[in-house]
Recover the amino acids of this structure.
């Protein structure tokens, strides 16, 4: 099994020593039948990627964009330049555990074997259907350590929150349940064509866009309840800028409305959720009250989510 770690680079040489050490460590944990490559897409053409000498040789390749095109375009370029059966879109400043890739591969093999055995038991005389084939290629989502200015915490801490990772409706009426695609092992064969063609110009929500497309085509999401990913705190994380994330979300919703890739009722709920949260965060008391009265279902879903996940992430995100 071959895995490609794809990283969009933007003036990130300060992170390259820890990045190379992480790639080398993960390669050393693999069995002889597995392979790992790292693809760095340099989206800051005025600055070259400098990989340190330390750490020994590991399979890292660098490609330069002709001009700054944004993180979504860089990730798509990385897909074109990579050859892994599975991909991890890792940010330049974040980290994987030394055994993260090996752990993901083992989990994927176990899932595929269990799925095949179950299908063979239920339908021994039949070829695998397209739906059964889809079930063999899930998105694996690891738990994560979330660093903040006031310390670190495990991200999925309650059973309820862990179930939300795999629940499509929660992505529509609460929000993105995955901190970063660096948590995820994604089957290349499952990535929808529209995601590689309709590129978000505004950074922030291209991963949210991808998850919704994958859910819409019934790709399973499976939680790997191990903290294999660390979301580093840099005080510049884009995911902390809710307004920019909203602008990016509005952009991909427009793409989805034109493409019929997601059901219209789901898109209406997603757009209503995004606009409600935007108004709630940025409006005064009257705006907050009126928006909540107009969207009682979303308000209730987010209150329940906030209480049961024991996290501030929710309607105020």
């Amino acid at each position: 099994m071959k895995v490609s770690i794809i990283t969009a680079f933007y003036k990130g040489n300060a992170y390259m020593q820890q990045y190379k050490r992480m790639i080398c460590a993960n390669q050393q944990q693999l069995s002889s039948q597995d392979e790992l490559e790292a693809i760095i897409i340099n989206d800051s053409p005025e600055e070259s990627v400098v990989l340190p000498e330390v750490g020994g040789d590991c399979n890292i390749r660098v490609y330069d964009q002709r001009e700054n095109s944004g993180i979504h375009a860089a990730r798509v370029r990385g897909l074109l330049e990579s050859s892994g059966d599975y991909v991890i879109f890792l940010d330049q400043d974040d980290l994987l555990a030394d055994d993260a890739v090996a752990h993901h591969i083992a989990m994927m093999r176990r899932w595929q074997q269990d799925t095949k055995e179950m299908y063979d038991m239920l339908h021994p005389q039949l070829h695998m259907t397209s739906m059964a084939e889809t079930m063999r290629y899930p998105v694996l989502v690891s738990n994560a350590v979330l660093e903040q200015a006031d310390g670190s915490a495990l991200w999925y801490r309650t059973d309820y929150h862990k179930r939300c990772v795999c629940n499509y409706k929660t992505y529509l009426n609460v929000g993105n349940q995955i901190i970063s695609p660096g948590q995820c092992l994604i089957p290349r064969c499952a990535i929808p064509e529209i995601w590689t063609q309709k590129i978000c110009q505004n950074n922030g929500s291209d991963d949210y866009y991808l998850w919704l497309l994958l859910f819409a085509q019934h790709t399973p999401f499976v939680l790997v309840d191990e903290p294999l990913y660390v979301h580093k705190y840099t005080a510049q994380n884009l995911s902390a800028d809710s307004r920019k994330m909203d602008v990016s979300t509005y952009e991909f919703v427009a793409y989805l409305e034109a493409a019929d890739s997601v059901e219209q009722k789901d898109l209406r709920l997603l757009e209503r959720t995004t606009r409600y949260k935007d108004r709630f965060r940025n409006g005064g008391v009257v705006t907050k009250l009126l928006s909540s009265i107009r969207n009682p279902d979303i308000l209730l879903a987010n209150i329940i989510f906030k209480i049961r996940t024991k996290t501030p992430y929710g309607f105020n995100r």
Observations:
- Strands lie at 2-9, 35-42, 60-64, 86-89, 95-96, 139-148, 151-154, 184-187, 221-231.
- The longest helix spans residues 100-122.
- The domain at 2-262 is CATH 3.90.550.10 (Spore Coat Polysaccharide Biosynthesis Protein SpsA; Chain A).
- The mean pLDDT is 90.
